[in-house]
Amino acid sequence: MKTVLITGANRSIGLETARQLAAQGYFIYLGSRSLENGNEAVAQLKAEGLTNVEPIQIDVADLTSIQAARAELGQKLDSLDVLINNAGINGAMPQAAATADTQIIRDVFDTNFFGVINVTQTFLDLLRQSEAPRIVNVTSGLGSLTMHSDPSWKYYAVKLGAYGPSKTALNAYTVVLAYELRDTPFKVNAVDPGYTATDFNQHSGPGTVEDAAKIIAKYATIGADGPTGKFFSNDADGDGDEMPW
């Protein structure tokens, strides 16, 4: 049975991604900052008949927590097939580029950018033991510089000084990592689930968690002929097609 680690998976898109992949027969390690919340999420999935799921405590903004999760997982398995870097924060408001408190920006980057790097680097050795390792970095359309430069884009006016730039940086890291792993079985992609109604945005988005998770699961399970080093988005046309950087 293939194995998956999903960060920030105790609710919303992360939890739904865990649900969909578990239903496809993957064994899910459901990452959560709070083990109590993780246990509650796992209990919910098991009540639905999905028994191939287990909680693991991991705070992506805390390197010690990441290393502890790696040690725990290393006692359970010799390889990891899929890493989904889903955990993220919006950050405190306001985020005007000219006036935002730089500590707010640092906090957002610690989770959305440096957290992804630390998790990826820490678990890379287990991923290397997989025959078909996959990494999905959950990003946002607000990280696209091309779209931010297009006045006709529906989200053109949504300019945040911390959140958007953190995802732009994440996209850049995805490109570099995919390039470094280009001659291996790895597939590394940035995936934007689209503007989805979740706790993250006070349920203001038009998309559903089911559709959001579907695109993440799609690129977490691509075959050997699948893309790598690309940016895909539900906001491109609703079908998870390629998004411009």
UniProtKB/TrEMBL annotation:
Q: Which Gene3D superfamilies match?
A: NAD(P)-binding Rossmann-like Domain
User: Matching CDD domains, A to Z?
Assistant: carb_red_PTCR-like_SDR_c (cd05324)
Question: InterPro entries attached here?
Answer: CBR1-like, NAD(P)-bd_dom_sf, SDR_fam
| Keywords associated with the record | NADP, Oxidoreductase
Q: Which PANTHER family match?
A: (+)-NEOMENTHOL DEHYDROGENASE, SHORT-CHAIN DEHYDROGENASE_REDUCTASE
**Family named by the database record:** Belongs to the short-chain dehydrogenases/reductases (SDR) family.
Protein name, per record: SDR family oxidoreductase
Species of origin: Hymenobacter defluvii
